[in-house]
Predict the structure.
Amino acid sequence: QVQLVESGGGLVQAGGSLRLSCAASGRILRVNAMGWYRQVPGKQRELVAAITGSGITNYADAVKGRFAISIDNAKKTVYLQMNNLKPEDTAVYYCNAGVVNFDYYGMDYWGKGTLVTVSS
């Protein structure tokens, strides 16, 4: 079993910053990639940023230049530094991890989500 624990969400004014963290634990042999998605009511969940274990990153156009994703492989933790936040960044942010478990199966896991609210 693998668990993802997210932290760092909250309320911030437009132009402010937040840092999200997501720690993976459990029967993990290797982390292939981790990432952050977000969802607002009535819309599909969308990719915000993702990073592979080797450090290759991918960002949604809407957050390029404002958000930065990083990974600590030893801690199996992914971070999302969010700067210059805008009201349209308001959403529930979900952590995602693609891992290889001890049985050598590739599995995909989701966190429970953390709410980010940006006030104007």
Observations:
- The radius of gyration is 14 Å.
